[in-house]
Design goal:
Shape: globular
Order of helices and strands: HHEEEEEEEEEEE
Oligomer: single chain
Largest sheet: 5 strands, antiparallel
Distance between the termini: 75 Å
Radius of gyration: 20 Å
Helix content: 25-40%
Structural class: alpha+beta
Number of domains: 1
Length: about 140
């Protein structure tokens, strides 16, 4: 009877060990994140952040691009909105399609968006929008 309980007691420790990242994986993730932040800073260079807004109009159509968990909506060369999302919409950076469903014609903090693979049309993630911070040319 004791021989059967010992493996059962070891199971949680083994599962926990399988979920931890190696030092090399942590370092690769840090390098990747630093690259994402560098690209984001380059996109926002020369623009000044304004007061966060709860909602933005979906029209006119805006160009969206992803940088990790951040989505930028480019209205024109002098106005870009930044929303830091919660969830998993990082696929936008590799070209996934961002789909939102709203009946108000606005994107608002807390709205849920989904990402889909362009080729297969399978869902690849979903996220919730944060505030929309306008970045404008000074």
């Amino acid at each position: 009877m004791r021989m059967r309980t010992l493996p059962l007691l070891m199971l949680p420790a083994l599962l926990l060990g399988a979920c931890t990242q190696t030092q090399a994986e942590v370092e690769r993730a840090q390098v990747r994140e630093a690259g994402v932040q560098e690209k984001l800073a380059k996109e926002l260079a020369g623009l000044v952040p304004g007061k966060p807004e709860t909602c933005i109009s979906q029209f006119p159509q805006k160009q969206s691009s992803g940088y990790g968990a951040t989505i930028l909506y480019r209205v024109n060369s002098g106005l870009v909105y930044r929303s830091d999302t919660v969830g998993g919409c990082e696929g936008i950076a590799r070209g996934d399609i961002l789909v939102t469903r709203t009946s108000t014609g606005q994107l608002c903090r807390g709205d849920i968006a989904q990402t889909f693979d362009q080729t297969s049309r399978f869902p690849t993630g979903s996220c919730s929008f944060g505030d929309f911070v306008p970045y404008r040319k000074p």
